[in-house]
Write a structure and sequence with these properties.
Layout: H1 3-23, E1 36-42, H2 44-47, H3 51-61, E2 66-72, H4 78-82, H5 85-91, E3 98-101, H6 112-118, H7 120-133, E4 138-141, H8 160-172
Parallel strand pairs: 1-2, 1-3, 3-4
Length: about 170
């Protein structure tokens, strides 16, 4: 299977899992239901791949009401996101049912000891603000994938497969 097909399969599976998470056990009478409110916070993996638009079309096609917004900045890590005033304004703009977080791919390809200091404090700052706005918000992580040729500056992630596996371990951690 080519790298592009593998990436498409990963994206499809991620969206499928996300949709099942959103709609399992929801009311059958979608016309009377309040719309789901979903905010995507991410970088180019979110906005260049049009994930919010794709999800909105899928949800609306299922007959459900949805409000989906995004607040993105290309190349942003969780640290950069945690310093963005516009991101906090987006979080506080409504009571979100779901906030989907996506950081810089390589930041979660490191060992847990590095993630503990370089990522977790900033994710905590972001999630604290989400829960302060609405303690019932469900926070989800949009797991990205490895670069087609890996990241050659680090031998532990210098192929697509190694980088994808490492990112997955980081997100699971």
């Amino acid at each position: 299977m080519s790298v592009n097909n593998r990436v498409r399969n990963i994206v499809f599976k991620s969206v499928f899992v996300f949709l099942n998470t959103l709609f399992f056990g929801t009311s059958a009478n979608a016309a009377d239901a309040e719309p789901l409110k979903i905010l995507f916070i991410g970088n180019s993996y979110t906005h260049m791949n049009e994930m919010p638009s794709i999800l909105k079309k899928m949800v609306e096609k299922s007959g459900k009401k949805v409000i989906i917004e995004r607040n993105t900045q290309s190349g942003a890590s969780f640290r950069v996101h945690s310093e963005r005033k516009d991101m906090y304004a987006a979080i506080n703009s409504r009571k979100w049912d779901y906030v989907v977080l996506q950081g810089y791919s390589r930041e979660l390809s490191f060992a847990p000891e590095h993630i503990d200091t370089a990522t977790v404090p900033f994710v905590n700052k972001i999630t604290d603000s989400i829960y302060a706005n609405n303690p019932c918000t469900n926070v989800l992580f949009y797991m990205t994938w490895g670069y087609e040729g890996g990241f050659l500056d680090r031998v532990e992630v210098d192929t697509y497969e190694k980088m994808a596996d490492s990112i997955e371990r980081g997100y699971r951690y």
